Amino acid sequence: MLVAQNHEVAVPQDLLLRLADARQRTDELFHLVKSDSLYERAIPERHRIIFYIGHVEAFDWNLLGNRVFGLKSFHPEFDRLFAFGIDPVGGGLPDDKPADWPAQDQVYGYAAKIRQLLDGHLRKETSPAGLDEFSLNTLLNVAIEHRLMHAETLAYMLHQLPLDRKMAPSTGRSVITTEPVRPRMIEIPAGPITLGLERSRTAFGWDNEYDAHTVDVPAFAIDQYKVTNRQYLEFLQAGSYQSKDLWPADGWNWITANNVSHPIFWKRSGDSWLYRGMFDEVPLPLDASVYVSHAEAKAYGRWAGKDLPTEAEWQRAAYATGDGNASQRAYPWGNAAPNERLGNFDFSAWDPTPVNSFPDGNSAFGVADLLGNGWEWTSTPFAPFAGFEPFPFYRGYSADFFDGKHFVMKGGSARTAACMLRSSFRNWFQPHYQYVYAGFRCVSR
Ligand code: AVJ
Ligand code: FE
Question: What angle do CA 330, 188, 366 make, to 5 degrees?
Fold first, then answer.
């Protein structure tokens, strides 16, 4: 029950629980790293690990501390240092040294103080800043989902850390075995699909999810499954990393300049291949989803005589009810909330499963594995929907990336929290970024 008097609005309990849960997710990740390795840089294009320990707290502080509770900064220098991550376009890589960063105990001290201050005020259950219920809910959802996104981006960052620098948790999902995957394509008839969220809804969405709009999608056929390691291996063995014609021009420049000759998640071992898992290296799981960059997915598509789906095609294959009208499902499988029998998501595993592991998760058209088990690259550059308005309290969240240099990804990975499996959620990365838990499926038109 919300108690509203004198412009004071209670902080809903469920949001406090979700914030606590999200904090546990990011805490767990930092605890996987051996304490002598927190100043490592696991991915050349990203900050050192220590930055993220400060960042997830500084973000909440910068968002809520003054705006909601009228609090004054106790460490403006750290508030700025840890405010934003980096995503260099055009090849410039960071070259800071470990000694450029504050000591571990200072960063942990800053983080702890933020939680203590924010929690003290959140628990008082009123916001003195005169925010209405909707604004307060929106800000808390931003804090929660921002942190959960980092729980995913940190997982794939730590994935690249050498195995001897991290400690595996004792629990893990047991290996799923399935019938061998038999790739096939499914015809999707021409018809409408709605993208985005309606403003009138009370549900939370990020700025880039607005406005809702319906598009008519011409008929196409789409792979029932994501492309597997087995299929991608065939592409690789056909000499494709040496065939300039298959690659987009900038993709070819990228693989030749960086000597890219296979997916970053693969490792050669004699004349066979290993999959570099989060905590161990295993023989390449042939029926699992391959993880690759957008450029590699494009090259595979050209080799196979197919293409990547547009965002609208992907959306229609996933959410249309299949009966010709504009109505759609909340999730590919229907309207039931996500659970562990419907896909590999919501932190249920660290690595991908065979692409045919979750038939109960199929869409109305029978398309499988759409949510979880690896984001899916689309051919759609990340751009605003008509009616886009940046959040006034975080203007750059999406708008900084509307540069034609990022592509929309849909679906989700094993490390995507259930709340971000909503149909309107849009993810994006640069086309040569190999480190995301992302694969693809193809279409023919
Ligand atoms: C939406 C995942 C592309 O990690 O760059 C985190 C999310 N933005 N902090 C990213 C984000 C600011 C963003 N992605
Ligand atoms: Fe961030």
Answer: 60
- Asked whether 428 lines ligand 1 (CB < 6 A), one says yes
Look up residue 391 and give its two tokens: 């959040």
Q: Which helix (H) or strand (E) holds 282?
A: strand 281-283
Report which protein residue has its CA nearest ligand 1's atom 4: 153
Instruction: Give residue 164's identity as a one-letter amino acid code.
Output: D
Ramachandran region of residue 90, left (φ > 0), alpha (ψ -120 to 50) or beta? left
Distance CA 354, CA 369 (A): 9
Q: What is the C-alpha to C-alpha distance for residues 58 and 198, in angstroms, rounded to an integer?
A: 31
**Ligand 1 pocket, residue 146 CB under 6 Å:** yes
pLDDT in tens, 259-297: 999 999 999 999 999 999 999 999 999 999 999 999 999
DSSP labels, 350-415: SS--BTTS-GGG--TT-----SSSSEEEEEEEP-PPTT---BTTBTHHHHTT-SSS-EEEES--TT
What does the longest C-alpha to C-alpha distance in the chain come to?
72
C-alpha of residue 149 to centroid of ligand 1, in Å:
7
Pairing of strands 272-276, 438-439: unpaired
How many other C-beta atoms can be found within 10 angstroms of the C-beta atom of residue 289? 31
* Residue that has been written with the tokens 């309107």 in this structure: 424
Tell me the residue type at 36: D
Count the Cβ atoms, other than its own, within 10 Å of residue 32: 18
Q: How far apart, in whole angstroms, are the C-alpha atoms of residue 379 and residue 2?
A: 44
**Angle at alpha carbon of residue 389, lines to 84 and 64, rounded to 5°:** 45
Task: Give me the residue label for tokens 């509307």.
Answer: 402
What confidence tier does 5 reach under pLDDT thresholds 50, 70, 90? Answer: very low
Which of 149, 391, 403, 433 to probe ligand 1 with, by most ligand atoms within 8 A of CB? 149
Ligand 1: which atom is nearest the Cα of residue 87?
A: 5
Question: What domains are defined for the chain?
Answer: 8-89+97-165 (1.20.120.450), 180-445 (3.90.1580.10)
Residue nearest (by alpha carbon) to ligand 1 atom 8: 397
- 427 CA closest ligand 1 atom index: 1
Q: Does residue 433 line the site of ligand 1, with CB under 6 A?
A: no
What is the side-by-side order of every strand in the sheet holding 407-410? 427-429, 407-410, 375-381, 438-439
**pLDDT at 173 exceeding the cut of 70:** no
Q: Say how far apart CA 356 and CA 286 lie, in whole Å.
A: 12
Q: Is 382 in the pocket of ligand 1 (CB under 6 A)?
A: no
Does the pLDDT at position 8 exceed 90?
Answer: no
